[in-house]
UniProtKB/TrEMBL annotation:
This is Glycine/D-amino acid oxidase-like deaminating enzyme/nitrite reductase/ring-hydroxylating ferredoxin subunit. It comes from Clostridium punense. Keywords: 2Fe-2S, Disulfide bond, Iron, Iron-sulfur, Metal-binding. InterPro entries: FAD-dep_OxRdtase, FAD/NAD-bd_sf, Rieske_2Fe-2S, Rieske_2Fe-2S_sf, Rieske_Fe-S_prot_C. Residues 418-503 form the Rieske domain. The keyword Metal-binding applies. It comes from the Bacteria. The keyword Acyltransferase does not apply. Gene3D superfamilies: D-Amino Acid Oxidase, subunit A, domain 2 (3.30.9.10), FAD/NAD(P)-binding domain (3.50.50.60), Rieske [2Fe-2S] iron-sulphur domain (2.102.10.10).
């Protein structure tokens, strides 16, 4: 298999070049992080007449949003039966209708701004290959319809194999996420609104009437702050480290002209298999996704790509070409409902949007609409079901996710010299824990024999990092921070790099 880990979205759009933030600036709202949440929220806030400053640590829209599969849908797995049981019919309807409104809002923004982003109306389907799952899927259709959602049951599809049945939502959509978001970003920049790249936020201080947002090279004074960093970066509020964990999954971009596909699909069964199409470079690509696992828990991540490739061989009878492969991660909340709204108990004017459980295209618009309303002093009718503070009254519930237990295990592991490997044992292309000068460290030897040694303790809350073989990165199983082989930050919540140890 060819070894190139860059998404179709990144490969078919230009790189951006916004300035780095230096000095001081006053603004109404500072938005931290420019993925789909940050860019969408900044856009709506500007439309509402506010001064907005968007601060991105890297380049805009090069994080998880650049590595998504970008299905825009309110069918988030088989979920409406569960949310109705857990929270009641009203809350379930709020969830579904908020996401349906979000899809409509994306449509309107694209039309209003004439954004050429390959937006296409589609069905979205969760299908099963097993007879025994049919009653569950029928029930999901019944519940979803009773909530006013566009659900129906299907027995056939354009997938290259027979399905037993599926939950199908009509009037859903797909797009090219970077084409959409780079165009929105152009609408944000200008007048009293700014986008800054390479401007990592490292701290936040309370001010009399607002917040001081501190970057590497400057300070933004803002009445309101939106934390859109995927995993929220400020640990002293909100307890997000106990309320979420990160899960990675993988995608291949292939062509298989003998097997035309129409619609968007995901399997009900695990390992998950996801399908959609995308036109680019004169080709009709099929994006095949799946193989999710907790970030940092699996070292042989190359196996995930290999499994998808082998699966493609079977279903396309070997008649396909591989053009792209990429991976990303998303945040999994305790009850499968995103955390949107005020960041913590005592943080008026500080907002968060996270925990999209791999359904962030519509959920990010839900978040942008709720947060914009909050800042403008309006009550959004859908806000309660998404409240980011819903577990604050019952901290014991947070234990259910096992996130605290997992963190404790990994913090202890980081302090044990539980390997006998040394530098001499390291093979070409291998990354692992070794003992170096009496300390456990992380070491990677590239194919040319160059060795990179890093501190193995995550700078976020001190968990032990694990090597990610496919992406050549050091990943944290606790909350999903990721670092390069040289220790630079790839992924929040960390705001500090790990030390590269000189040989
Ligand atoms: C494989 C995969 C497939 C998916 N497919 C779908 C799909 O089909 N449909 C769907 O709805 N959802 C899907 N999702 C989910 C969706 O992609 C995500 O929920 C969404 O992209 C998250 O957007 P975000 O803006 O929160 O994060 P990101 O896009 O990661 O943006 C966060 C930004 O914050 C920046 N940042 C971090 N720390 C700082 C700091 N300290 N200072 C400044 N900036 C900072 C980062 O650099 C980054 O640019 C998928 C997820 C995965 C993993
Ligand atoms: S991401 Fe939290 S400890 Fe590493």
């Amino acid at each position: 298999m060819r070894n190139f880990n860059r998404s179709l979205w990144l490969e078919t759009t230009p790189i951006t070049n916004y300035e780095t933030f230096r000095g001081e600036l006053k603004t109404d709202v500072a938005v931290i992080g420019a993925g789909i949440v940050g860019i969408t929220t900044a856009y709506l806030l500007k439309k509402a007449g506010l001064r907005v400053t968007l601060l991105e640590s890297n380049r805009i829209c090069e994080g998880n949003t650049a590595n998504t599969t970008a299905k825009i849908t309110s069918l988030h797995d088989v979920f409406y039966t569960k949310i109705t049981e857990n929270y009641g019919k009203d809350s379930a309807a709020q969830y579904g209708l908020a996401n349906e409104k979000a899809i409509q809002k994306i449509r309107e923004i694209i039309e209003e701004n004439k954004i050429d982003c390959d937006f296409k109306e589609q069905i979205n389907v969760i299908y099963t290959l097993l007879e025994e799952n049919l009653p569950m899927l029928h029930e999901e259709v019944r519940v979803a319809r009773s909530l006013g959602l566009p659900a129906r049951f299907i027995e056939e599809s354009s997938l290259p194999f027979d399905i037993k049945g599926g939950v199908c939502f009509d009037n859903q959509a797909q797009f090219h996420p970077r084409k959409y978001l780079l165009a929105l970003a152009e609408k944000i920049e200008g007048g009293d609104c700014h986008i800054f790249e390479n401007s990592r936020v490292v701290d936040l201080e309370n001010e009399d009437k607002g917040y001081k947002v501190i970057t590497k090279e400057g300070t933004v004074y803002a009445s309101n702050v939106v934390v859109a960093t995927h995993f929220p970066i400020f640990d002293r509020y909100g307890l997000y480290f106990a309320k979420m964990h990160a899960e990675r999954s993988y995608a291949l971009g292939i062509t298989a002209p003998d097997f035309p596909l129409d619609g968007m699909y995901k399997s009900y069964e695990n390992p998950a298999r996801s399908f959609r199409t995308q036109e680019a470079n004169g080709n009709q690509y099929i994006i095949l996704g799946g193989e999710g696992h907790r970030t940092g828990e699996k070292e042989d991540t190359q196996e995930c790509y290999n499994n998808l490739f082998e699966y493609a061989k079977v279903i396309y009878d070997g008649k396909f070409d591989l053009h792209f492969k990429w991976s990303a991660q998303d945040m999994m909340p305790l009850d499968d409902i995103p955390y949107i709204g005020q960041y913590g108990k005592s943080t008026e004017g500080l907002y968060v949007a996270t925990g999209f459980k791999k359904w962030g295209m519509s959920s990010s618009m839900v978040a942008a609409m709720i947060i914009t309303d909050e800042i403008m002093g309006k009550i959004n009718e859908h806000r309660d079901i998404f409240s980011a503070r819903r577990f604050e009254l019952a901290p014991s519930i947070m234990e259910l996710g096992g996130n605290v237990k997992e963190a404790t295990k990994n913090i202890i592991a980081a302090r044990l010299n539980n390997t006998t490997k040394t530098l001499e044992d390291l093979k070409l292309g291998e990354g692992t824990h070794i003992i170096y000068k009496g300390e456990k460290v992380g070491a990677y030897k590239d194919e040319e024999g160059r060795v990179y040694i890093v501190d193995i303790v995550c700078k976020h809350l001190g968990c032990e990092l694990h090597f990610n073989d496919a992406e050549k990165s050091w990943d944290c199983p606790c909350h999903g921070s990721r670092y390069t082989i040289r220790g630079e930050i790839i992924e929040a919540p960390t705001t500090e790099p790990i030390k590269l140890i000189q040989l």
